[in-house]
Amino acid sequence: MDKIIVEGGQSLRGEVKISGAKNAALPILISSLLVDGSCTYSNVPDLKDIESTKKLLANLGVRVAMNNNAVKIDAAGLNNYEAPYELVRKMRASILVLGPLVARLKKARVSLPGGCSIGARPINLHLKGLAALGAKVDLVHGYVEASADTLRGAEIYFDTVTVTGTENLLMAAVLAEGITILRNSAREPEVVALADVLNKMGAKIEGIGTSVLKITGVDSLKPVAVSIIPDRIEAGTFMASAALTGGDIKIVDCEPTHLESVIHKLRLTGSDITIESNIIRVKGGDKISSIDIKTMPYPGFPTDMQAQFMVLMSVAKGFSVITETIFENRFIHVSELKRMGADIKISGNTAMITGVEKLMGAPVMATDLRASASLILAGLVASDTTEVNRVYHLDRGYEAIEKKFAALGAKIKRVKA
Ligand code: EPZ
What we know:
Structural class: alpha/beta
Distance between the termini: 5 Å
CATH class of the largest domain: Alpha Beta
CATH superfamily of the largest domain: Enolpyruvate transferase domain
Shape: elongated
Largest sheet: 4 strands, mixed
CATH architecture of the largest domain: Alpha-beta prism
Bound molecules: ligand EPZ
Strand order of the largest sheet: 22-23-1-24
Number of helices: 14
């Protein structure tokens, strides 16, 4: 397995171009299953998860052609309704094929995704919503087996705000008969991006960007050509690196309106942030002030930025509290940061951090995608050398992260296993 070696102590300066958003690309590429024709997508990030999605779609009889950051998907030949365990276990977002398959083929057999390091991540709300639309849903030998002669519009309330749950039900409802109302829906930019693409395909979705989505079913959808929105979490990760290293970075090709909570919090830590159209410039302050963070569904502070902010608070002046309200086990990076000298105490879903003068370089282990990025950030400001192992987690969600950091002046390299 590859590892990434970081020498701490460099102030990062320059420009970094943000790639397309993984969590928008996954549902949007999968929404092609709803179309009897060929869709084209640009600004698709070159990531392991996109590769997995390509394999998943090809397995369903769909033609997928990728060329750099452009993808063409022709689902006219969709002839298989099964997503097998060996594909789903590599990428839990594969569960997003469930809604489109039932909508288009009237049946689906998708492996249950199982848990992951950050939590149990059940899909009960996905299944409850599908059943509400009239599908017969059973769990058989680790698979979801769903079928419906006709999906009929219904009123669905999500007990918990769920990003992929909202996306799955959106994709199921667009071809259902009648009107579906989704209440307590997720409002993440990636959900908005999917809804916008579905409407471009000819769907009738109202209330986009709010927590109440009204979908009027249509008979069919038509092919589209669209560009994937920028990745707000990649942008936030580089913003944090400027604050952390006292640097001066221009984050280009990003969408500042998707980052309001992160911009607000970063300013409170003492960073100077200026915004112009699709550029955010972050100048790190001469000291980092401690602040408290509580992760919430959008537009609250994103859970996918929690680990990155924990690194910032680890070397801030003072005491801070980070509360993780979305996932029950998203503090795995804490033990690795403590091995680098961070002073962090955990009590339930709350982390109490006392800033230290300096972190120490160390060999560390990546466990989930965003925790891996936080270990790279820690290495950027730690003394000496940090060796981040198991970087395949990183490659799932960050496009050439070490090259982008090196271009900003970081002393960082990938060592092939
Ligand atoms: C999406 O995961 C993202 N993944 C995650 O990003 C992100 O952290 C998460 O949303 C929260 O913003 C993709 O979009 C592919 P949820 P998702 O359903 O949809 C509970 C990354 O790093 N829940 O919004 O799986 C669940 O257990 C990844 O890119 C149920 O109880 O998250 C969690 O506590 C990590 N029942 C909460 O809701 C359900 O049926 C939010 O989960 C569904 C969810």
